[in-house]
Amino acid sequence: MCACSCVACVLHVFHDGCWFGVPGAYYRTLTKATQSTLAKANSVAEEMLSSMATVRGFGAASTERSVYDEFLSDFRAVNVRQAWAYTGV
Predict the structure, then answer these.
(1) Distance between CA 43 and CA 31 in Å, rounded?
(2) Rounded to an integer, what distance in angstroms lies between the CA atom of residue 53 and that of residue 14?
(3) Mind listing the pLDDT tens digit for each residue in 8-57?
(4) C-alpha neighbours within 13 Å on the C-beta side of residue 50
(5) Is the entire prediction scored with pTM above 0.70?
(6) Measured between alpha carbons, how far is 14 from 8 in angstroms, rounded to an integer?
């Protein structure tokens, strides 16, 4: 491959996976992490809603909310990383 930026060289680099292979694998990893963190947040919300009387009875609503907020902030962080990976910046 030559050192120029002609179309043939650009297509060759793309075909070899230099542009798509590593970022693609990273993006798939981030997609799995996004799904995992959102599933954890949803699990906490479902657990809290299914036992709302118990949560309120023990006065643990603020504790449960802080746990849920923590999971949502983790989801947001992973989602931001995924957005940066998608844009390629």
Answers:
(1) 18
(2) 57
(3) 444 344 444 444 555 778 888 988 999 999 999 999 999 988 998 888 88
(4) 6
(5) no
(6) 10
